[in-house]
Specification:
The two termini are 43 Å apart. The chain is elongated and about 120 Å long. The strands form three sheets. The protein has a six-stranded mixed beta sheet, with no helix packed on it. It has 552 residues and is an alpha+beta fold. It contains 14 helices and 14 strands.
């Protein structure tokens, strides 16, 4: 308990004594209650012996003062009425409870009782004053009772002997009136305690049943929320694939229309204005449809994030560095088109290993410096945003070439990759970039479009978009594996998987196939760099998050 927040003011202790009137032999005492103040963990932090009325609250005019925000200024009061004890809830903000039940106005107290002050706040353990059951004898001057014979010799009884006589199942024949009276008092106290223990046991059993019920409900609620989130996630993926494919077709139609207009202008083609208008209207309608679909996609993603947050809120988590890093890994996976709700545990461990690799080299720091000094990120992000692709693909040329515009790869049976995106001559040409006359030599060539960063970026991202909408099924990690030319077997393995996002994703690929070492390193290096890029300072790097200026 924080001493700065909770201060208990000592209450006036009632010294209950024996009535001076000795004309009555035995007299019960009912003027006070014993009250133990407990914290939320059940630790005793105060003890009081008070006479009614007993007020409890934050105000200094209460009998028991608890200076804490959970306690109202005047929270509750305990009174004696008509021979019974009553507790009144004084319209407190956080309520007063008995056995987890809110005291609406007032309730009689069946002592002993535990009164809760607020939910998870403080507790009052209220008991009858210990002297309630103690019968006080008045000294006698008459001769001893004949029922307890005088001993012929002086007997010394040990504490164990006394306890044995008082607690024996049957009274010994030589037990006197006073000892019998003490046995009756002990028996009555035992009966009361047994009843109290039974109440406590039943209360604990009830609490256990409630906890078990809540745990069962939480389990089913978590599974239901998780299923809803997964269903929506794969609906999103299907829509992303459809949009990517439609975008490719729309671009092809626009190119055909542009070529048609050029031919008409050069009088090489005759076509009616009606036909031309129809084609233009079709393209405009398709663009409008795709715009609406992208808006629907954004709404679905927002709803999906809500489901994921609900699912995560049902899990017990602690704000540690490990948990924070796990959240970053899950975020990058989600934005790259992989379900964080199905994130394999060994995948997280692998990502951490590759983060450690980046931390052991200056390569990432130097590459980001190159990007910043040459303002290379703007055209990459603009192209990715144009086609609705994950922005984390900015780390792909970092892995390929460290963003070296004049990079030249090794000679392979597929050719020589060149430029920051390490495009092969054939791939570059397929996407509108002409290789130079030195394409087959490991030499820099000013006429080679792959060394023009803007042109190479346009071609590379068009290529990524094609993979994204076809064989990769909107899985960013499968795109990376496909883009890597270390082993074309990867692309063949991907094509053998079912043609839908639910069954063609990186998690399924990892379960079904053994990823080649080169491709494995390639994917994990890019992914771990993206995780670091979310919070570089947390991982010990001295640069700002590269994507921060481009996030809305």
């Amino acid at each position: 308990m924080d001493d700065d927040k909770t201060r208990i003011r000592p209450a006036t202790v009632l010294n209950a004594g024996i009535d001076d009137d000795r004309t009555t032999l035995l007299r019960p005492i009912h003027e006070a209650l014993q009250i133990d103040l407990l914290d939320a963990q059940g630790n005793q932090i105060g003890h009081f012996s008070l006479s009614a009325p007993i007020s409890v609250g934050r105000g200094q005019d209460n009998a028991i003062v608890i200076s804490h925000e959970v306690v109202s200024r005047h929270h509750l009061i305990i009174k004696a009425e008509a021979g019974a004890w009553w507790v009144y809830n004084l319209n407190s903000t956080n309520g007063a409870y008995i056995d987890g039940r809110l005291i609406a106005d007032r309730e009689p107290l069946h002592l002993p009782v535990l009164i809760g002050i607020g939910v998870g706040g403080f507790y009052l353990r209220v008991l009858q004053q210990q002297t309630d059951a103690t019968l006080v004898p008045t000294p006698q001057t008459s001769a001893p009772s004949t029922t307890e014979p005088l001993p012929s010799v002086h007997r010394t009884l040990s504490q164990n002997d006394i306890e044995a006589r008082l607690l024996a199942e049957e009274a010994p024949p030589d037990m006197g009136d006073y000892t019998m009276m003490a046995r009756r008092v002990i028996h009555q106290d035992r009966v009361k305690q047994a009843k109290s223990y039974k109440k406590v046991i039943w209360s604990l059993l009830g609490v256990c049943l409630v906890v078990a019920g809540l745990a069962t409900y939480q389990h089913f609620a978590l599974e239901n929320t998780r299923k809803l989130a997964l269903d929506m996630f794969y609906d999103i993926k299907t829509l992303e694939v459809n949009l990517s494919q439609a975008d490719i077709k729309l671009e092809e139609s626009a190119t055909v229309l542009e070529d048609t207009l050029k031919a008409i202008n050069q009088e090489k083609l005759r076509i009616s204005q009606e036909q031309l208008k129809t084609q233009q209207e079709q393209i405009a309608a398709e663009r409008q449809r795709m715009r609406l679909e992208r808006e629907r996609l954004a709404q679905m993603k927002a709803k999906y994030r809500q489901y994921v947050e609900e699912a995560n809120s049902m899990r017990l988590r602690f704000p540690t560095d490990t948990e924070y890093e796990n959240q970053l890994i899950a975020k990058v996976a989600r934005d790259l088109g992989e379900s964080e709700l199905e994130l394999p545990e060994d995948f997280v461990g692998e990502v951490r290993k590759y983060i450690g690799y980046w931390q052991g080299t200056s390569r990432l720091q130097n590459s980001i410096r190159t990007v910043e000094q040459n303002n290379l990120l703007q055209p990459v992000v603009a192209a990715l945003q144009k086609y609705g692709l994950p922005l984390y693909f900015i780390y792909l040329p970092l892995q390929e070439s460290n963003y070296d515009i004049r990079a030249i790869g090794p000679e392979t049976r597929f050719g020589i990759a060149k430029g920051a995106w390490q495009l092969l001559a054939g791939t570059a040409q397929d996407f509108g970039v002409a290789p130079g006359p030195l394409a087959n030599l490991r030499e820099f060539d000013e006429q080679d479009g792959r060394f023009d960063f803007t042109l190479a970026t346009q071609a590379a991202i068009k290529y990524i978009r094609k993979i994204y909408g076809t064989e990769a099924q909107a899985s960013g990690l499968l795109v990376m594996a496909s883009y890597n030319y270390g082993d074309n077997r990867v692309r063949e393995l991907i094509r053998q998987m079912p043609d839908n996002p639910k069954e063609r994703n990186f998690w399924t690929f990892l379960q079904r196939y053994e990823l080649p070492t080169e491709t494995r390193d390639y994917v994990f290096m890019i992914f771990s760099a993206a995780v670091i890029g979310e919070d570089p300072q947390h991982f010990g790097f001295k640069f700002n998050p590269p994507l921060y200026p481009f996030k809305s």
